[in-house]
Write a structure and sequence with these properties.
Layout: H1 7-22, H2 33-36, H3 42-57, H4 61-73, H5 78-82, H6 88-105, H7 115-136, H8 146-151, H9 160-167, H10 172-183, H11 188-195, H12 199-214
Helix pairs in contact: 1-3, 1-4, 3-4, 4-6, 4-12, 6-7, 6-12, 10-11, 10-12, 11-12
């Protein structure tokens, strides 16, 4: 039997529950646990991740937001990705796809295995999909449909009229970055300058924001 979680983990999960009760669907649980995650014991890390994943699977926006932050900030998907890929730049690209895959698939998470085991499989699968997609990409001598590229706001936003409703689900800290990048089409460097943050922080906020949107975005073919 696993030992009970520490007070800090119980407090973090209680904060998530309180945030959902106060403002369902909006996220932004107030907790210090994301920054102190590396200091937790392995047992507490597992208890926190499993607790957040179970809550996110039951439609907790606060749990999903904190879970995505932990996965992104602490590179938790890297082991599964690096099982297939080695190039750091490619790993970063696939890691962004993993956040979206986690947000899309979290409802399927069951506590038969740990969240880390589940995430490892997601990371490996996304890396394999990346390789398959790269094999299918046109070579430089093949024509590219520039019109379709120009119309694409992101990998998961299918229609502009869906975007305003999807953006309304985001906390402000993510909404600003996503709007400047995916709506205004600003380069990452300009977004960073506008928000007064680093480019790496911009990328993280955009990746998390996109992943959070996808769970509430109704895609229309």
């Amino acid at each position: 039997m696993n030992p009970p979680p520490s007070l800090s983990v119980r407090s973090a999960l209680d904060a998530v529950d309180a945030t959902d009760a106060a403002d369902p669907g909006r996220g932004r649980a107030s907790t210090q646990v994301a920054s102190s995650f590396p200091e937790l014991t392995a047992e507490d890390q597992q208890a926190l991740l499993n607790g957040l994943a179970a809550r996110a699977a039951n439609d907790s926006a606060a749990a999903l937001e904190l879970l995505l932050e932990l996965v992104d900030h602490h590179r938790l998907a890297d082991p599964g990705i690096r099982r297939i890929l080695a190039d750091d730049g490619v790993v970063d690209e696939v890691a962004a796809d993993v956040l979206i895959a986690v947000a899309r698939s979290i409802g399927s998470f069951q506590q038969r295995s740990s969240f880390r085991t589940w995430l490892y499989a997601i990371g490996s699968n996304q890396a394999k999909l990346f390789l398959r997609g790269r094999e299918r990409r046109p070579t430089p001598t093949e024509p590219v449909d520039q019109a379709s590229v120009a119309m694409k706001l992101s990998s998961f936003v299918a229609r502009r009229e869906d975007l305003s409703n999807a953006l309304a689900t985001l906390p402000d800290v993510y909404r600003q970055a996503v709007i400047l990048r995916d709506v205004e089409q600003l380069p990452y460097e300009d977004v960073a300058q506008a928000l007064g943050i680093t480019v790496n922080t911009v990328r993280s906020r955009i990746h998390r924001g996109r992943a959070m949107i996808v769970t509430n975005l109704a895609l229309v073919d």
